[in-house]
């Protein structure tokens, strides 16, 4: 318990250090554009692949469970859409991104810490936390929602491909994904994604920033970043769902 | 000049620096020597706030570093150049970008002016035509030179070097040592070099402070060092057969 409180204290002290004005706006924008590429553009591939197959599998499994003639076929499209928007895209994708992006952030910052590059920044008079972490957080907050919207779109395409062998027509699938659409679900999905983006980038950066030791500790920090981000994501998933939907 | 007054620092129960006081003079190469674990690196890091001290004062030309607020500390740090043990070059930047970085962050100079200054610094450390290389492509000696170039690019008032020639062959080590001394004299800056290499002591040591188990055990010049009666220092300096013979 004492250790947990210590971590929490250090985490909020770090956040306080992170959220200050960058020394130079041009340098910050340059850093931000690099993070957009690393966090966003470089994740499009994996997001596309995962979303497509998740969408396909969800539609097949739904079709398998809705075999009764009492259920209209368009329900498969409907259920696929709801599953993707409400849970699979924001939560599953963010858990996967915690592995990809979070471990990358922790190991990058951790390596800089153990090779004294962060000390070098501090000696120059640069706020190392703002310089290194703020662009990552801002890039995550801005790009993760875009990735999740893309993920929903690709997932729905995957769902259509998946239901091709289950005897459902394209027309009924399309009807299903349009029927009874509640726009608030997208809002809910984006709110969750924004929270998760902040958790992934800040928690991973925290573990990287306080790495102490050598290469082994960088690996440990990277693993911890993924584990803790995932646990906190699941906790916030529950809390936000309870707050926004219950 | 940098003056430290009664500095103490401990990690948990372990007292690493015990009431250390010393004056590092301007325009001279001030050396801190001592065995591994004697507190040299902790002392150097404590000077600039990379380690928070438990008690004492660090005065940079009468400015008490640990009493400054964060903004004032950052401003003071812009007057400090530091050469780290492993170089601490940003591995995702080229040599040129590494040296350019402080200029980009803290000056409003035109790009051409900045590049001119970078080339000037690279020339000073005898490293021309290496602008586009990445740190992973540099040898140990080259890394140290780039690190020196980055440390001096902002014309610092204080230059701190943490074991500048560790891991270097004796010839390159002497080149790096001499470079540090030349820069100190040319720019009339306060230089502190942390080392346990006796060749460095003999080569560039002007004012020497000896740390033993976290305490300042001795201070003086290299001439005084050769005739010291301090037992621990004698054991440290004349540990090798070569230096024993030299003393005789």
Which stretches of chain B are poorly predicted, pLDDT < 50 over at least 5 residues? none
Biggest interchain interface, per-side counts: A-B, 15 and 25 residues
Mean pLDDT of chain A: 93
User: What percent of residues of chain B adopt helix (DSSP H or I)?
Assistant: 25-40%
Rg result of chain B = 18 Å
Mean pLDDT, all residues of chain B: 88
Main beta-sheet strand count, sense and barrel state of chain B: 6 strands, mixed
Helix content of chain A: over 70%
Total of domains of chain A: 1
Cα distance, first to last residue of chain B? 36 Å
Q: What's the main sheet of chain A like?
A: none
Oligomer category: heterodimer
Question: Which CATH architecture of the largest domain in chain B?
Answer: 3-Layer(aba) Sandwich
Class from secondary-structure proportions of chain A: mainly alpha
Please state roughly what percent of the residues of chain B sit in beta strands, choosing from under 5%, 5-15%, 15-25%, 25-35%, 35-45% or over 45%: 15-25%
**Rg result of chain A:** 21 Å
Classified by CATH, the class of the largest domain in chain B is Alpha Beta
> How many DSSP-defined strands of chain B?
10
Main features:
heterodimer; A: 246 residues; mainly alpha; elongated; B: 248 residues; alpha/beta; Rossmann fold; 6-stranded mixed β-sheet; 4-stranded antiparallel β-sheet; 10 helices; 10 strands; 25% strand
Question: What do these coordinates show?
Answer:
- Chain A has 246 residues and is mainly α.
- Chain A is built from 9 helices and no strands.
- Chain A has helices at residues 2-18, 25-40, 44-65, 74-114, 117-124, 128-162, 170-178, 183-209, 215-245.
- The longest helix of chain A is centred in the middle third of the chain and has 41 residues, at 74-114.
- Chain A is elongated and about 70 Å long.
- In chain A, 44% of the residues are buried.
- The mean pLDDT of chain A is 93.
- Chain B has 2 domains: 2-79 and 158-247, P-loop containing nucleotide triphosphate hydrolases (Rossmann fold); 88-155, no CATH class.
- Chain B has helices at residues 40-47, 70-77, 95-106, 111-124, 140-152, 170-187, 198-204, 222-226, 231-237, 241-247, and strands at 2-11, 14-24, 29-33, 55-60, 63-64, 80-83, 158-162, 190-195, 207-212, 215-220.
- In chain B, strands 6-7-8-3-9-10 form a 6-stranded mixed β-sheet, with helices on both faces.
- In chain B, a hairpin with a 2-residue loop joins strand 9 and strand 10 (215-220).
- In chain B, helix 3 packs across helix 4 and helix 6 packs parallel to helix 7.
- The A-B interface holds A 23-24, 27, 112, 115-117, 119-120, 122-127 and B 45, 48-50, 73-78, 80, 82, 84-86, 88-91, 101-102, 104-106, 154.
């Amino acid at each position: 318990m004492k250790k947990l409180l210590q971590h929490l204290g250090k985490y909020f002290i770090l956040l306080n250090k992170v959220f200050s004005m960058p020394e130079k706006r041009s340098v910050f924008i340059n850093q931000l554009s690099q993070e957009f590429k690393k966090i966003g553009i470089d994740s499009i591939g994996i997001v596309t692949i995962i979303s497509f197959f998740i969408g396909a599998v969800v539609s097949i499994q739904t079709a398998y469970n809705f075999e009764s003639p009492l259920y209209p076929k368009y329900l498969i499209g409907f259920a696929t859409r709801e599953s993707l928007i409400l849970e699979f895209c924001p939560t599953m994708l963010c858990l996967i991104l915690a592995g990809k992006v979070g471990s990358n952030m922790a190991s990058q910052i951790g390596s800089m810490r153990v090779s004294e590059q962060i000390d070098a920044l501090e000696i120059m008079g640069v706020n190392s936390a703002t310089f290194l972490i703020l662009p990552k957080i801002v890039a995550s907050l801005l790009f993760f929602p875009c990735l999740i919207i893309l993920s929903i779109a690709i997932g729905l395409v995957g769902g259509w491909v998946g239901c091709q062998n289950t005897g459902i027509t394209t027309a009924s699938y399309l009807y299903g994904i349009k029927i009874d659409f509640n726009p608030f679900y997208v809002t809910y999905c984006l709110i969750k994604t924004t929270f998760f983006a902040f958790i992934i980038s800040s928690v991973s950066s925290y573990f990287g920033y306080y790495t102490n030791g050598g290469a082994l500790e960088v690996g440990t920090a990277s693993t911890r970043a993924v584990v803790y981000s995932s646990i906190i994501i699941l906790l916030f998933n529950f809390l936000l769902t309870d707050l926004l939907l219950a | 000049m940098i003056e430290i007054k009664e500095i103490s620092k401990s990690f948990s129960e372990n007292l690493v620096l015990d009431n250390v006081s010393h004056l590092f003079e301007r325009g001279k190469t001030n050396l801190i020597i001592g065995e591994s674990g004697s507190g040299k690196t902790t002392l150097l890091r404590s000077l600039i706030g990379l380690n928070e001290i438990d008690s004492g004062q660090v005065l940079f030309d009468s400015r008490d570093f640990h009493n400054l607020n964060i903004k004032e500390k950052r401003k003071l740090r812009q007057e400090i150049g530091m050469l780290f043990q492993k170089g601490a070059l940003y591995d995702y930047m080229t040599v040129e970008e590494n040296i350019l970085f402080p200029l980009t962050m803290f000056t409003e100079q035109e790009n051409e002016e900045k590049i001119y200054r970078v080339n000037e610094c690279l020339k000073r450390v005898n490293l021309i035509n290496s602008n586009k290389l990445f740190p992973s492509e540099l040898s140990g000696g080259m890394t140290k030179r780039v690190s020196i170039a980055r440390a001096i690019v902002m014309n610092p008032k204080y230059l701190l070097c943490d074991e500048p020639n560790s891991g270097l062959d004796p010839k390159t080590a002497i080149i790096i040592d001499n470079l540090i001394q030349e820069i100190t004299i040319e720019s009339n800056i306060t230089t502190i070099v942390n080392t346990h290499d006796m060749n460095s002591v003999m080569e560039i040591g002007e004012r020497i402070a000896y740390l033993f188990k976290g305490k300042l055990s001795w201070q003086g010049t290299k001439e005084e060092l050769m005739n010291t009666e301090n037992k621990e220092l004698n054991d440290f300096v004349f540990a090798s057969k070569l230096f024993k013979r030299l003393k005789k």
